[in-house]
Predict the 3D structure of the following.
Amino acid sequence: MAAQGQAIDALSQFTLTPVLGVVGSSVNFTQANLFMVIAGALTIGMLVLGAKPRAIVPGRMQALAELAYENLLKMCTDQIGPEGRTYFPFVFTLFFFVLMGNLLGMLPFAFTYTSHIAVTMALAILVITVVTVVALRIHGLHFFSYFFPPGAPKALAPLIIPVEVISYLSRPLSLSVRLFANMVAGHVMLKVFATFVVMLAGAGTIGVIGAAAPLALNVILIGFEFLVAFLQAYVFAILTCIYLHDSVHLH
Amino acid sequence: MSEERDGTDRPRDVPQGASPKGTSFEDRLHAARRKQGLSAPRQGEEPEGRGVGLSPSQGSALGMGMRVGIELVSALVVAVAIGWFLDGWLGTRPLFLILFFLLGGAAGVANVWRLVSPQKPPGRTGSD
C-alpha cells in the first residue's frame, strides 16, 4: 500500500458549488442549475434545428428529432391509449430532462443533476401530482374506488384500502429512488475504479501492470453507464405513462 | 406480407411453404396492422409492453432485482413514515408504527406482485 495517503473520495463529485462568479453565488446558482439550463437549451436546440429543414427525406438532425418525437408519441399512445396524445408534451419533456441530465453527466467535468434525490424526488412528486389531478378531473370522486379493486370481498376492505393507498403513495418514492440510485451507483463505481488506477500506478512497475485491470473495467463501465442513462430515462417516462394509464382508465 | 414470413409467423395456421390462403385476409391484415401499431389490439389481447411491466428494459436480471428491491423497500418506507407521523400527532408512539410497518410490508409485496405477474389478475381486467 504505497498510496496510503490517498483516500478514495467517491462522493465529492456530487457536491454543489455556485457558478457564474458573484452573481451565481448570491442567488445560489449551482452547477446543477447550470446543467439543467444546458439540458433544456440542448433539447430545444435539437428540436428547432431538426424541424428547420422540413425535408421529405430527413437529414441527420431532422431524423433525430423525428425519431424522438415519434417514438415517444408511440409510447404514449401505446401505453395510455388514444388519450395519450394529451399527455405527450408532459412525457416528452420529462423524458428529455432526465435523459439530458444522465447523458450530460457522462461528459468529463460535467455534473449529473439526476444524481440528487432532491431533483428526482421533485420530478416524481410532479408526476404523482399530475397523475392524481388527471384522475380526479376525469373520474371525480369515483377515483377513490381505485383503492378498492372490484370483486374483492367487502370484509377485506379495512386491509386492502390501506395497502393500496400505501402502494399508491410509494410510487413517487420508488420512481425517484430508482433513478437517483442508478446514477449515484454508476458514478461512484467509475470514480472508485479510476482511483484504483491512480493508486496502483503510483505503486511501481508491478502496480502499473496491475492498473490495467481497473482501467479496462472502467472502459466497460462507461459503456454500461451510457446504457443506464438511456434506460433510466426510458423507465421514468414509461412508468409515467403507465401511471397516467391507470389514472385515465382506473383499474 | 411475403409467404415465408407468414409461414414463420404462424406455423400453427399455415404449414411451412404452403400458400397463406388458409387464413382469412382480415386476420392477416389485423395482425400486420397490430404489428405496426396502426390499430388497437382486439378485446382480450394484451398490448405489448403492458402487463409484464417494461419488456425492453428487462434485459438484465440485475436491473430486475434492483427494481423489485426498490418496490419492496419504498412501500415500507412510506408506510413507516405515515405510522411515525400518526404516532407523533396522536401521541401513541409505537401503535401506528407497528400497524403501518405490517401494512407497508403487505403493500411492498403487492407492488412486487404487480411488477412480476404475467398479466393483471382477472378481477381487475374489467374496465369501468
User: Anything to note?
Assistant: Helices of chain A lie at 21-26, 31-51, 60-80, 84-104, 117-139, 157-201, 205-210, 212-249. The mean pLDDT of chain A is 86. DSSP finds eight helices and no strands in chain A.
